[in-house]
């Protein structure tokens, strides 16, 4: 893979994925949808956020191309936009990060 150079679209896709993973609520949504589609109200209840917050986070994830809505009568459920996302999230959960003790604590990150 060393001879493969990341294209601008690859870079943009991973940047969108990174943005999605930068918020705990969005991560919770992605992890919940890994198992099965869900309604926004159920996701909000499960994650302990308001419906408005959930609506905003789902809009962000839709904009990133990670989730899609599925009409269901007058309601819509959400699912991961691509089946590979579930496997990618599973792999990320297997990664063990070695972090400096003072890095990424709270709002300030000394990694950059």
TrEMBL record:
Record's keyword annotation contains DNA-binding: yes
Gene3D superfamilies the UniProt entry points to: Winged helix-like DNA-binding domain superfamily/Winged helix DNA-binding domain (1.10.10.10)
Domain HTH arsR-type positions: 6-100
Keyword match DNA-binding: yes
Stored Pfam families: HTH_5
An annotated Gene Ontology molecular function: DNA-binding transcription factor activity
Domain of life: Bacteria
Keywords noted in UniProt: DNA-binding
Protein's GO biological process: response to cadmium ion; response to lead ion
Name of the protein this chain belongs to: DNA-binding transcriptional ArsR family regulator
């Amino acid at each position: 893979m060393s001879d493969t150079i990341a294209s601008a679209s690859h870079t943009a896709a991973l940047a969108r994925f990174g943005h999605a993973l930068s918020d705990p609520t969005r991560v919770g949504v992605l992890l919940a949808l890994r198992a099965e589609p869900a309604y926004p109200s159920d996701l909000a209840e499960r994650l302990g956020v308001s419906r408005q917050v959930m609506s905003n986070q789902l809009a962000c994830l839709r904009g990133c191309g990670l989730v899609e809505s599925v009409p269901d009568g007058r309601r819509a459920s959400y699912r991961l936009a691509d089946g590979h996302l579930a496997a990618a999230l599973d792999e990320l959960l297997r990664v063990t990060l070695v972090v400096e003790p003072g890095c990424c604590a709270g709002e300030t990150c000394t990694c950059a």
